[in-house]
Prior knowledge:
alpha/beta, single chain, 2 domains, D-Maltodextrin-Binding Protein, domain 2
Amino acid sequence: MRRLLVLLVLAATSAWAQPYPAKPVRLVVGFAPGGGTDIIARLLAQKLGERWSQAIVVENKLGASGNIAAEAVARSAPDGYTLLMTFSSHASNAAVSKLPFDINKDFSAITLVGSGPALILANPALPAKSLRELIAYAKAHPGEIKYGSSGVGGTVHLAGELMQQLTGIEMVHVPYKGIALAMTAILAGDIQITYATPISAYQHLKNGRLIALAAAGPSRYPTLPDVPTTAEAGLPGYEIDFWYALLGPAGMASGLVDRIQRDVAAIVLAPEMKQNLLAQGCIAVGSRPAQ
């Protein structure tokens, strides 16, 4: 019996001593490919894969404003092999919906990867070419403007609701399974307005297929200097910051969390990557879990 116990202890010690990661890591995204969360996840997956010499597989698990993906990760083993790249709607969903998980108890916070102000985006066919004109047009045509979001109860949905409350306008909400699908809809003219981070809209703004009416931040975004803030555009007090965070299931070992956080921070805060993210519309953060 003593010999058996020794062998079991040695086996357990050997298992814990295995380098991480010893097999592919699954990085789950709750939204469609092409949106900001997916773009960040794939950039990070590539760099982590190079750093760890291991495959980082991005898995898009759509539905319920990211809640289906979040639940899948919350129910996973806390071994670091299933992680969640999430969006700020992860927090707002809990305020408006009954969820099958607890956002405070069922996840291990690893790092805030980056953030960016919400942009108020319009299809160029919309008669309004500024935020003031949008508000005036919407007041004159109640219920005519459709705005798209990444799902019911998410921060993009709430951004539209807040604008309506502050201005007294009436718009029609059209939810999609991710901001990428809302982008497809606005480009096709199915909706007229949406709200997104610069990283989700950058290419469409660059080629003129979308117009940014305002940035909902305290100052102009560095790579979009011609886009006024909401305060400058006539809607003071309307400030919304969208963020991207990396989470794991609850119960992850603190040493494992610290290891992943350090590696992610080293990647996103490296000068080239930091500048690349900024150019696309995301301000790198790479904070520690307690921050």
